[in-house]
Amino acid sequence: MYIVKLFCRLSIYGLPTAQRMGKAWKFLSFYWAAVPRCKRGVVFFNTILNSYFYAMENPDKLVRVVEARMKLKARFEQKMKQTPSMADEKPMGKGKPNRHGMPRVPVGQVLTTKWPVLDLGVEPDILLADWRLVVDGEVENPTTLDWQAFMALPQTEDTSDFHCVTTWSKLDMQWKGVRLLDLAVLVHPKETATHILCYGYDDYTTNVSLEEALKPDVLIAHTVDGKPLPKEHGGPARMITPQLYAWKGSKWISRIEFLPHNKLGFWERRGYSNTAYPWRNDRYS
Predict the structure, then answer these.
(1) Is the pTM of this model over 0.90?
(2) CA 199, chain centre distance (Å)
(3) Nearest to 224 by CA among 282, 157, 125
(4) Integer Cα distance of 43 and 192 in angstroms
(5) N or C: where does the chain have the smaller number of CB atoms within 10 Å of the terminal CB?
């Protein structure tokens, strides 16, 4: 089955039959030798195969995406390195350092294995067929994504911690979703953009500076711990901000607006911190 699939895909390049068979066999031999036996499964194989052909079929697109991401990253990289969650010389907390060098448990936080539900009293019921994500504002290419277009974007898997301003933290949550950095690459923020304002289907809003929003662990997540994100936790998709308190990640996200200035969101207008740094106990303004 795999040989047939590989043979058919190679045929689109106009290769002679013998050459197609040779390339197919060479690739399968490499795969079989390189991958541990415990991982030789249909899903794993198809993932490798699809990635292989994506690179072959979209070399120019891949180069453009990488170049755009690196350019955007370079624009904010120095600011990212100077943010408190990465550069604070005296972070407050306890435990071994996390991957950014901060204490694993920020000051004032208590660990939990549960995942408490917090919202504004509204849990929107959003069908995937009706879901849309608008990305606009101070950008060159504003866009609106439906679920299919969103899922066609590069997908990132990451394990990170979740810190709620109400003093609990849940560690090692396994997420899958689209990096906000990749959404930014899609729309090309203007040089004047400095912040984003995120909107939820429940009319919630929250603000985040671009040096925080473009960090690689900030995701628009649709999967948690291997399962679709539950509705009560913001499904079908929510934003997560592991280096900030969790209220900075809008549940049931519907819009990301790039701004040339800071604009306070729902809780920020009610006295919550504008910056929300967990390792500075930065809960309220």
Answers:
(1) no
(2) 16
(3) 157
(4) 43
(5) N
Determine the residue type at 156: T
Q: How far is it, in rounded angstroms, from Cα 31 to Cα 49? A: 9
CATH number 2.60.40.10 is the correct assignment for the domain at 69-280: no
- How far is the CA of 33 from the CAs of 5, 40, 253, in angstroms? 19, 10, 43
The answer to whether residues 49 and 30 touch, using CB atoms and an 8 Å cutoff, is no
CB neighbour list of residue 72: distance below 8 Å, 6 or more residues apart: 181, 184, 185, 189, 214
Whole-angstrom CA distances from 157 to 65, 178, 223 are 18, 9, 9
* Parts of the chain belonging to CATH 3.90.420.10: 69-280
Q: What is the pLDDT of residues 159-169, one digit of tens each?
A: 999 999 999 99
> d(Cα 244, Cα 206) in Å, to the nearest integer?
12
pLDDT tens-place string over residues 7-16 = 344 443 344 4
